[in-house]
Design brief:
The protein is an all-alpha fold. The protein contains 7 helices and no strands.
Length: 138
Amino acid sequence: MRDIGKIGTPENILNKPGSLSNEEKSCIREHPQNGFNILKPLEELSESLPGILHHHEHYNGRGYPAGLKGEEIPLQARLIAVADVYDAFTTERAYRAPISPAEALTIMEKEAGKMLDPYCVSVFKEVVKQELNVKSNA
């Protein structure tokens, strides 16, 4: 649901194997606002709107669309951002192969306090570790 705003993004941009041009990056950066606009009329999803709109804000204030910083970013958006980054790292993309959960968590820990909320990363890491332990013991 977080990326529903990508519906209007051309597939050649979404699936581009190389670097995006500035114009293409600008197009991609419209998806949080587009998603917000698509879902705004649906009253039952109104509580989800801040998370959808702000899931690309960075904890250090360098994200988009509003340049929110730290706790200015809705908690829901900070949680979605952590899950979104993990998903991006651990799934195959047109421009790169997936990395392991352990590698993803290591990178995310380095981004804690910059791109990602440190507390959310810490909690997410514990949940993923528990899940991986359950799978390895099954």
